[in-house]
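lol ok so funny story. i was supposed to be doing the assay writeup but got distracted and ended up predicting the structure for this chain instead. priorities right. anyway since i did it might as well share w the group, maybe its usefull for someone
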Amino acid sequence: MASPKTSKRRMSSPSDEARPAKRLEVDADAQNDASRQSRHHTLSYPSVNSSQSVPSVPFQQPTGLLTFSYTPQRVLEFTDSALRYYIDPPPGADLRYGYERWIKRPEERTRLDGLLRAVERVMQKADASVGPGSGEKWLKDIAVVTWRGIMTKILTAPYEERDRCELNAMYVNGTLYLEEHLSDARLKEKEDLPPKQRVQTYYGYSFESWCTSSRPGVPERLEGHPVGWGGDVDTNVQWCSVIKTKLGDNRLVIGGEVDCVRERFSGRTDTFVELKTSMSIRNAGDEARFEKKLLKFYMQSFLLGVPEIVVGFRTPAGRLTTTQTFKTVQIPRLVRGKPGAWDPQICFNWGQQFLFKLKSILTAAAEDSSSADEPSARVWRVTLSPREGVSVSLLDEDGVRDVEGGEGRVGFLPRWYYDKVAGQDPDPGPPLAAEAEVPPGTGMPPTTPSSHQPPSHQGWNI
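and the output, tada:
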């Protein structure tokens, strides 16, 4: 005889058996909806017209880590061979001079490879000077690694009115890596500039040649060229600086090209000079347009610790009329209180919100165990649309293959870098002996957060 408990269990019917399947189907639809939602996110820009004050976000004064040069053959070397010194340009310089001899580097995808080699070198130096594993600890504390131009586009996005920007993002062991995404169509567009726009682009490079010399304070005297001409323009050649800084709670490593230094270079950023050109100001409309351009001038220099910007004003035909020097930290005061003025604190506050939101999205996705792929190998597309906001979407396999471009990469990170970094335990801990013996050029492991960051850098006053 069955027990009373057993006798209460009724027999299943065919309709009963179908119910769990229906419930599973509903659950699957819900999971698919949740999955789609987890793969696409949006973020709105802050208002730039509000009269309310914006909370101040601290920005640590940038500190130089190292510099490197690209040679005419586009070879990266850790020297200052491409370093140039500022000199005053000759009055009335012709900015079209040398245009026919311009060696223009072909447009290509803006990879992080050079910056990652620099990061690796910083880690190796830390290991050699402080002890094995010190470089790992340093990297573990870094929230973002990217180029200066990318951070400029992010921070100024609330004020951008024209240009759409696409980025690729990867989150590997607690560090966010960002590169600009340029489609083949966009690369072709940048390569095939209309003649007028191409000449105007050259004016900026020519101004750099007129303003720089291979020796401090001495204008170049090259045979067959006017006095002061620094040499024919070759955009393969660059001198770059890598700095560390901090935006709010985010420690950043940023790399960018530096045009020249004033008089000397001792490893610090305090003698860096940024060179810009702009149309001569003829009326109030020109002045308003120039003040709007000052936002990007300011942010580009501020991020890299460049203390001064020399602007060459020119005629439409490319004749230099005057030059004016701006102290970077004083630029916001020039526009403050004017109609339509920009506010750097809106940019910095937005930048902190953007990084927090993006890291939250990528972290949550990495913790989602429903996907079979490796979380750190995922690539996200971040689109900054003027006046609309930001969208963040997870790329599918075809999208990732497009980003890799048939090269030896995982996403957009070089394989040599990714294999080492992604192979580390993200939890704090001492490095393995084998990790400390990694030969140069094979990558860099992440590290534990540093609790002894020297408080030696004051925030910049804005």
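The longest strand covers residues 238-247. Residues 36 and 394 are 9 Å apart (CA to CA).
back to the writeup now i swear
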